[in-house]
Write a structure and sequence with these properties.
The complex is a heterodimer of chains A (379) and B (281).
Chain A (H helix, E strand, L loop, with lengths): L11 H19 L15 H9 L18 H13 L5 H17 L2 H12 L5 E4 L15 E5 L2 E9 L9 E7 L11 E7 L5 E6 L8 E12 L3 E2 L5 H7 L1 H5 L9 H11 L5 H29 L5 H24 L9 H17 L6 H11 L4
Parallel strand pairs in A: 1-4
Antiparallel strand pairs in A: 2-3, 3-7, 4-5, 5-8, 6-7
Helix pairs in contact in A: 1-3, 4-5, 8-10, 8-11, 9-10, 10-11, 10-12
Chain B lengths: L8 H13 L1 H8 L4 H10 L15 H11 L5 H18 L17 H32 L1 E2 L2 E2 L4 H30 L5 H29 L10 H18 L3 H15 L2 H9 L7
Antiparallel strand pairs in B: 1-2
Classes of the chains: A alpha+beta (379), B mainly alpha (281).
């Protein structure tokens, strides 16, 4: 096989951690602190993120000197998958914990690590992704936002779109053109840490189809960013951005977006399950075992310092198709359920209306299949 | 901290085959063994009379005989691995060129043999999937239409990407079952659930791979002269047998669904089923 998914199992300390996370979720729910709902990108609760940080469950794999906890990627996976399975409001901290922090750890300066990582790990500051633009979606290398060198820093002009929760988050890592394209289309790009609260950064809401103002347009008009906010080397932006992708694409958020719909249908069916409900739940469980096995493999490979980008793309495409399929299955199942709870109905409506985004965000289905095809040697 | 995978499937297969057959194992891995080599090995072990059809066209009886031959000394996991290697060797010597829906096929009496056979079929299905995919990848790079290799067409690239994803998903699942059998016991409580899950996933995955690999080949793939049919017919027969051993695809799905209902959560059921030493009940 051209893709590698070796078998890793969670070590005992990771399974002990799972018990802790489940107890934490149960306490939070018992205290009525939040209602399960949404997915990793649509359920924002800064106070919840601070409590997760206080438990030591943000920045888990980062060095202690930067506020991290020096645990393994598999332990981090236990936390992320359990919080997602509980449909907990993880959105505020998600991007920073998943990719902005690791990016700074890998390419940031000592000062940047010291400034941002401890606060990220405490759940005090939150990050957005600044990649897409009005004219650059799947073709990310075509970004036109430009950063020009000025005295003491950079002057940024351009527009970013679909910047989820930019109106609430503190910073975005913005990909901008700093030099000419050169021989490869990927040259001349750089990344900057941009303060979303700065007076010369203009954040405008874009209301999505579900009626939520999660998206934003972020407009830079000669916005000043200090030299200390350049991430890595000027011109190295493409390599840095792609290094985020394995983190971005292989996680459980790529196959658990419809988990609440499935679990709420199960709760409705539990007293009198029909054979069709039993079958549908079983089919879902079976495929979930396969996806989770692959996702665990990628987490372990990341732990070992590998960059399994193609494997990440493969998991995301398969996982997105799976999570969307559950909507069709458990919508049709509605009439089979002895009762249809409010939880089921709201999960069904939420998943249905949000699902077009699942196969777009973090790389479209088409881009992912192109990557898998490249892994197969077809392009 | 560096994490070490439990093992690789190839190394396990290699160990088991070497334990049982010594030098012959090397031939199997180079795919140069013949049916005669295999029969000689069975005879050497003193179990020639266990072969139900020494001249049979299907490799399955040979593999079944090997399992029976080994049953006295080999562990169940060895039996599963021998089934996989035995049948692989068998189909090289004597490619099956027929497919018929079996109503029942050699359901073993003991639970250990049942689990070993199921696991062996999973490993074989994974191997046949890879073989069908590899053949297809080669073909689309060689075959030209409209002035360029088929591989250059995006629609072909995406079709094969989808097939490759199914291969990866099923293989991960059967590797997990193998890891579980090797680490715990093939009769461990979570084995049955993992094998049921593999049988369910095989249902859809084999369909996708059967569809895509033949589609990209065009008419040549639908002939006896070209090799694709060996792998695709293997896939169909082995999937049937895997699912029959476990009472059928729907029964497997229902059992997994029942586990989720009992746990009160699909998530809790699968984390328990995948947990080392965990039970599935």
């Amino acid at each position: 096989m051209r893709f590698r998914f070796p078998i890793f199992e969670f070590p005992p300390q990771a399974e002990a951690l799972r018990v802790e996370v489940r107890a934490f979720v149960a306490e939070e729910l018992a205290a009525g602190l939040w209602q399960p709902g949404g997915d990793f990108a649509s359920s924002y609760d800064a106070a919840f993120s601070r409590r997760v940080g206080a438990r030591g469950w943000l920045g888990m794999t980062w060095p202690r000197r930067y506020g991290g906890h020096e645990r393994s990627m598999l332990e981090r996976l236990v936390v992320t998958e359990e919080l997602l399975a509980a449909s907990a409001p993880v959105t505020a901290h998600w991007i920073g914990d998943r990719q902005s922090g690791p990016l700074l750890l890998r390419y940031g300066t000592e000062a940047q690590r010291a400034e941002f990582l401890p606060r990220l790990a405490r759940g005090e500051i939150f990050f957005s992704i600044g990649m897409s633009e009005p004219d650059s979606g799947s073709d990310l290398a075509s970004v036109r936002t430009r950063a020009t060198k000025v005295d003491g820093g950079w002057s940024i002009t351009g527009r970013k779109v679909w910047t989820t929760f930019a109106h609430l988050n503190h910073f975005a890592i913005v990909l901008a053109r700093t030099g000419e394209v050169g021989d490869s289309r990927h040259g001349g790009l750089s990344q900057f840490i941009v303060d979303l609260k700065a007076p010369d950064v203009n954040v405008r809401p874009i209301v999505n189809m579900a009626g939520e103002p999660e998206f934003n347009e972020v407009v830079f008009d000669a916005s000043f960013v200090a030299d200390e906010r350049l991430v890595g080397e000027p011109g190295n932006g493409w390599q840095q951005v792609t290094s985020e992708l394995a983190f971005e694409r292989s996680g459980p958020e790529r196959y658990l977006s419809s988990i609440r719909l499935v679990e709420s249908a199960l709760a409705c069916a539990r007293e009198r399950p029909t054979p069709r409900v039993r079958e549908a739940l079983g089919r879902m469980a079976a495929k979930l075992v396969a996806l989770r096995t692959m996702s665990i493999a990628v987490a372990a490979q990341l732990q070992n310092g590998e960059m399994p980008n193609l494997e990440g793309a493969l998991i995301k495409d398969l996982g997105n198709a799976f999570e969307r399929e559950q909507i069709a299955v458990f919508r049709a199942m509605g009439a089979e359920l002895p009762r249809r709870s409010d939880d089921y109905l709201s999960a069904l409506a939420g998943a249905t209306v949000n699902s077009p985004a699942w196969t777009l965000r973090g790389g479209t289905r088409e881009v992912l299949r192109g990557l898998v095809a490249r892994g197969l040697g077809l392009r | 901290m560096t994490l070490v995978p439990m093992f690789t499937v190839d190394s396990l297969v290699h160990e088991a085959a070497t334990r049982a057959f010594g030098d012959l194992a090397q031939k199997w891995f180079s795919r140069s063994s013949t049916r005669e080599d295999l029969l000689a090995a069975v005879e050497q072990l003193g179990f020639k009379d266990a072969l139900p059809s020494p001249d049979g066209r299907d490799a399955w009886p040979t593999a079944a005989a090997l399992i029976r031959a080994q049953a006295r000394s080999a562990t169940p996991i060895d039996m599963a691995l021998l089934l996989a290697t035995g049948d692989r060797a068998g189909s090289i010597a004597q490619p099956p060129d027929e497919y018929s829906c079996t109503s029942d096929a050699g359901r073993p009496e003991s639970l250990a043999a049942l689990a070993a056979l199921s696991l062996g079929r999973c490993l074989q299905i994974g191997a046949a999937m890879e073989a069908a995919l590899e053949l297809s990848l080669r073909y689309v790079q060689d075959r030209k239409q409209f002035g360029q290799p088929l591989a250059k067409f995006q629609v072909i690239q995406h079709s094969l990407a989808i097939a490759a994803e199914e291969v990866a998903a099923f293989s991960a699942m059967s590797d997990l079952a193998l890891a579980c059998a090797a680490r715990e016991d093939i009769l461990g409580t979570r084995m049955a659930a993992l094998l049921d899950a593999a049988a369910v996933v095989a249902g859809r995955s084999v369909d996708v791979i059967y569809d895509v690999c033949h589609q990209v080949h065009g008419a040549i793939g639908f002939t006896q002269e070209y090799a694709l049919h060996r792998h695709s017919l293997d896939l169909l027969r082995w999937r049937d047998h895997l699912q029959l051993l476990r009472g059928g695809e729907l029964r497997c799905a229902e059992r997994l669904g029942d586990a989720a209902l009992e746990a009160g959560s699909v998530w809790r059921a699968i984390t328990s089923m995948m947990k080392p030493g965990g039970s599935h009940d």
